[in-house]
């Protein structure tokens, strides 16, 4: 029947609780010619909880390719980490730049 309430297109489907994951954001470092490599590695270790080896790989990627991802987080955490990096760089008088973008 065309308008039957039991039509597969119109029948009410049971509600299924789907846990909503928050939108995720990447935190990226940008390359520059002045910030010392050691400072970048220490910054990645400190704010992104990376090992020395992981932090060095990320720093080298940024150095050679212009930018690199340090981590992916919900928006508020990504923005907090970006601001922590920018404040740390500014306090140390390095021009290191950090941005967030949707993952
Ligand atoms: N290019 C810098 C140098 O040669 C090192 C560097 C790496 C700077 C990563 C910023 O996000 C950066 N000293």
Question: What this model shows, in words?
Answer:
With 103 residues, the chain is an alpha+beta fold. Helices cover 42% and strands 20% of the residues. It has a three-stranded antiparallel sheet with strand order 2-1-3. Helix 1 packs across helix 2 (52-65). The longest helix is centred in the C-terminal third of the chain and has 17 residues, at 75-91. The chain is elongated, with a radius of gyration of 22 Å. It starts with 23 loop residues before the first strand and ends with a strand. Mean pLDDT is 90; it is low at 1-9. It binds L-tyrosinamide. The site of L-tyrosinamide has 13 residues, from strand 1, helix 1 and helix 2.
List keywords for this structure.
single chain, 103 residues, three-stranded antiparallel β-sheet, binds L-tyrosinamide, 3 strands
Cα(first) to Cα(last) distance is 46 Å
Secondary structure class reads: alpha+beta
- Helical fraction: 40-55%
Trace the largest sheet across and list its strands: 2-1-3
Beta-strand portion reads 15-25%
Write down how many β-strands occur, each being a DSSP E stretch of 2 or more residues.
3
Average pLDDT number: 90
- 3D shape: elongated
């Amino acid at each position: 029947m065309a308008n039957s309430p039991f039509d597969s297109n119109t029948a009410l489907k049971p509600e299924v609780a789907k846990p909503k994951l928050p939108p995720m954001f990447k935190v990226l470092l940008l390359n520059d010619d002045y910030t010392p490599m050691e400072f970048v590695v220490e910054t990645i270790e400190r704010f992104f909880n990376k090992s020395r080896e992981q932090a060095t790989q990320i720093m080298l990627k940024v150095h050679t390719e212009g930018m690199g991802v340090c981590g992916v987080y919900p928006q508020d955490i990504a923005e907090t980490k970006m601001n922590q990096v920018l404040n740390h760089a500014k306090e140390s008088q390095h021009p290191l730049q950090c941005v967030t973008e949707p993952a």
